[in-house]
Amino acid sequence: MNHLTKQIGHDTTSISPSPEQDVADDHHPTTFRRYLGEASDIRFFHAVESAFCQQSESGQQEDDPEARVESYEQDGPRQQFLEQSQGPLPPRASADNFVDIYFSTIHIAYPFVSEPDFRQTYESFWRSDSLEGFRGPWLSLLVTIFAIGSCYVGIAEAEGRTSNPQTSRQHQRHFDRAIAIAQNYSSNHTVDHICALLAQCFYLLATCQTDRCWTTLGSAVRIAQSIGLHVEDAHRTGVGNTLPSPEMCRRVWYSIFVLDRLLALQLGRPPAISEAGFDVQLPSQQSDVDFANSTGQYGMHETDWVGDYFIAMIKFSEIIGRVFESLSILLVASICVDLDSDKEIFKDTDWTAVDEDAEVCLKVCQALSSNSNAARLASDMMQRLKKTRTISKVLKNLILTRGDLFTLGETMNCVAIGVVPTAENGFGNITDTLPSGDLFQATMLSQLDSTGLSQESFNLMYQTMPYEVSEPVMSFQRLDSRGKPTVQVEVETKDGKFRALVPSGASKGDYEAIELRDGGEAYGGAGVQKAVQNVQETIGPALLEKQYDLEMGLKEIDSFMIKLDGSSDKSHLGANAILGVSMACARACAAAKKLPLYDFLASELQSSPKHHIVPVPFFNVLNGGVHSGNTMAFQEFMIAPTGANSITQGIQWATEVYQTLRSIIIKKFGTAAIGIGDEGGFAPPITQPTEALDLIMSAIKGAGHEGKINIGIDPASSEFFGDGHYDLGFKSNKPSKLSSTELADLYRSLVDKYPIVLLEDPFAQDDWESWKFFHVVSKIDNIEVVGDDLLATNLIRIEKAAEVDACDSLLLKVNQIGTVSESLAATKRAYELGWVVFVSHRSGETTDDFIADLAVGIGCGHLKAGAPCRGERVAKYNRLMDIEEELQARKVGSSYAGESFRYAYSQAKFA
Ligand SMILES: C=C(OP(=O)(O)O)C(=O)O
Question: Are 384 and 67 in contact (CB under 8 A)?
């Protein structure tokens, strides 16, 4: 057979009109009138419009017949092609394309056709010389799929302005053929028959023939009920064993159910299926290919199936039922409001707020509308609204809660055809990767074309939906890990309360933002009541007044606080006060955007990681410097489990080394020596760096992790710098002064002998020359040189360091600069300079685990949070293990930074 001219329809001649044919013959005359429920979006727009006309300032009735839309039908009179029902099929290549289009779009959301079964029959169809053996419903389904496919191709061509008038009508021809074939079905109702009707529904939706779709779906519902698809197999009597597998029956039933809810919502008509009227188990989440393969039927490759998307749609459809009910009540009640006679209702209304809400409401309705007529009407409303604000009085009672809008948006968009998230449109595996708020946003974005809204307008609409701090900002004085007072802040939004606790350093640099301390008697002058008061009395009320929309992100809020403080170092209101609010607001923003905190922080950095990197933790297991009472000058000796393959394994190894170190210290110095320093590391009576490193090396070996763990050192040298010298004996009575060259030599000898990969603050914060010289040398040794006191997370210091080429890594401490946004700006700049970023805790910490999310969000590949010991330190490590598991569960790409922690940012493939 010549495939290019394959014909269909020789057994579909001499046809008599069927019920479907009646529908097909409806030419939609201009007098077309069909019932549209009060809750339909068309009626909603009309209600608003007539209220507007009554209220328009001119007092004149404006009525643009063009803008009045009486139904969803958009085709107008249609040409019929039924006489051509025996025409040629599309060439094989086009047919294949149409089938692929169908299975990669509609099928994902509505899997009522088994793809493996269909494709098998499809192959035999092309191999066969005759149509014998191919059931009428299957042929009708096939040709409907051609109609859908060619309709979609037509849309794509139109968008690309390559539209071919010759082919633009082809989808109609295919569809009419499908209807003609359907007329020859036997009166025996079968699942095939239902599938063909369902496919017709999707063609009708794709061509905006919603009303016709409504009646076609009605037939499908009745046939499904007549063969017992609304109950499980065990309760189905008298049907015989002609039905496909129970799983396929469920998929067909729920496809009907979901579509029924969508149409009910759009047209404002009661759904045909009531919730009490069926009892069918949810379908499985397996793709039909997997399903067929598992029953040993086929050996097909995986397709575009997106997991539990179908199940999510079923759940959304259940919600639609509820939204539908509440909308009916809401809209019917609102439309009846007579503004002049019903002044009582509006007595206490704040009209300014309502005006803004009304505008937002209209924009949302416009965007939610999956039908371009409705969108046009909504857009018309918008124009008129701009001329007069009085319409908002009517809209007051129409305003949906944000929750309603989300529900409505998600449902409408998820079930709308042609917007199924796919890999091609960038939303592959979306249900696995995103929470429902984002599913809403993603599907909205993918639907922009059909609404006629630009992405900018959509963003505007999405972002202007109010989401702000709703209650007074609370602040309290609490304690940090050293038992010193610190600031706690709580902000409240409609999502709940969001809290943050501020950390504090001991070896502080001179260029850090100023934390406010009370002085006086209480807590030896370390109280933070002034900072607490500044939050409660100044920052909080000012923020409340501003009503920042938290979905707009944190930058505006942080900039506002910086201005409110007015100083260059946050000394007026206190960096501890400002940072507490900034961190709490970051959490509130993340919740408003329905993002995990780490993803929100990534978005604030204006990057979205395609691959999340879980950082290597650097555990400070031996403490010295100003963090401990021993005579060791160097402040921190850290172990980094770079050879592990997950953070969970890394933490296990580090803990094993830590415990082994404890035993070694007991053995060597006695039990009195196992006291720990501020960051949880041991502080045995040692002085020389080599003593510390030897202890650590023995512990690594003793724990069995030799070769898999690297070392980082933070001498925190500003603490022992004075008079041009570095005094390693500053904690004892025996000075041990080194010049910067001698200190550099000491570092180099340590690097030669031990697996050191990172050195932080090797020189004092203003000893630029030494930094510059050492950095050149360290490049040869491939050592990361981190600036802490040197940079103070401050853009000005970063620029200077870049100019001098002093270092290649930024130690990121949020309280050094005082806001989250400025910390992210410093991060951004460091990345631009080709540097690495190393997130850090402070020695005076709290149980707040913010920095764990920060390290993942910015994809920096490593962080330090102290020893694997003490609640405030393990809080961060525990959170990182939670994130690692969460990322795996979300099935978003993620990996442990491991050996390549210095290249994490590029591995995270930020967009
Ligand atoms: C964490 C550190 O200590 P502190 O918080 O005392 O500055 C450090 O110096 O890197």
Answer: no
Report the pLDDT value the prediction gives residue 268, as an integer from 0 to 100. Answer: 65
Confirm or reject: Cβ of 840 under 6 Å from ligand 1. yes
In 3D, which of 692, 609, 632 has the Cα closest to residue 909? 609
**What is the Cβ-side half-sphere exposure of residue 183, based on CA atoms within 13 angstroms?**
22
- Cβ atoms of 627 and 507 within 8 Å: the answer is yes
Q: Which amino acid is at 661?
A: L
Ligand 1 atom nearest to 789, measured from its CA: 9
Q: Which two tokens stand for residue 879?
A: 């959170």
Average pLDDT value for residue range 820-831: 96
Atom of ligand 1 nearest to the CA of 840: 1
> Contact 705/755 with Cβ under 8 angstroms?
no
Closest CA relative to residue 847, chosen from 810, 879, 873, 818: 873
CA–CA distance from 248 to each of 259, 629, 859 (Å)? 17, 72, 44
Distance 611 CA to ligand 1 centre (A): 30
Contacts of 339 (CB under 8 A, 6+ apart): 51, 54, 55, 346, 393, 394
User: Could you read off the pLDDT of 793-804 as tens digits, one per residue?
Assistant: 999 999 999 999
- 450 Cβ partners below 8 Å, 6+ apart? 370, 371, 372, 375, 416, 418, 419
Tell whether ligand 1 has an atom less than 6 A from the beta carbon of residue 506.
Answer: yes
What is the percentage of the chain residues whose pLDDT exceeds 90?
51
* Cβ of 507 below 6 Å from ligand 1: yes
Task: Give the Å distance between the CA of 714 and the centre of ligand 1.
Answer: 9
Which pLDDT band, with edges at 50, 70 and 90, does 308 fall under? Answer: low
Q: Which of 480, 484, 507 to mutate to test the pocket of ligand 1 (most atoms within 8 A of CB)?
A: 507
Q: Would you list the DSSP string of 194-247?
A: HHHHHHHHHHHHHTT-HHHHHHHHHHHHHHHHHTTTTB-GGG--SSTT-S--HH
* Whether the CB of 843 sits within 6 Å of ligand 1: yes
What is the pLDDT at residue 355?
45
Q: Is 842 in the pocket of ligand 1 (CB under 6 A)?
A: yes
Angle 769-770-775 from CA coordinates, rounded to 5°: 100
Report the mean per-residue pLDDT for the chain: 77
CA distance 2 to 437: 51
Structure tokens at 789: 């006191």
Q: How far is the CA of 679 from the centre of ligand 1 (A)?
A: 9
Closest atom of ligand 1 to 678 CA is 6
Active-site residue list? 679, 813
Contact 482 CB / ligand 1 (< 6 Å): no
Report pLDDT for 157. 66
- Bigger pLDDT: 64 or 774? 774
Instruction: Choose which residue among 484, 636, 713 to substitute to test ligand 1 binding: the one with the highest number of ligand atoms within 8 A of its C-beta.
Output: 636
Mark out the alpha helices in 633-790 (DSSP H runs).
647-669, 689-702, 740-753, 768-781
Sequence-distant (6+) residues with CB within 8 A of 683 are 622, 623, 624, 627, 628, 629, 630, 632, 675, 676, 677
Distance in Å, CA 716 to ligand 1 centroid: 8
Give the position of tokens 């009320």: 541
The pTM is what? 0.55
What pairing do the DSSP bridges indicate for beta strands 894-896 and 612-614? parallel
Contact partners, residue 366, CB within 8 Å, separation at least 6? 375, 378, 379, 381, 382, 451, 453, 461
705 or 608, which is more confident? 705
Q: How confident is the model at residue 537 (pLDDT cuts 50, 70, 90)?
A: very high
- When mean pLDDT is compared over 89-98, 257-266, 571-580, the highest value belongs to 571-580
Residue to probe by mutation, ligand 1, list 634, 679, 714, most atoms within 8 Å of CB:
714
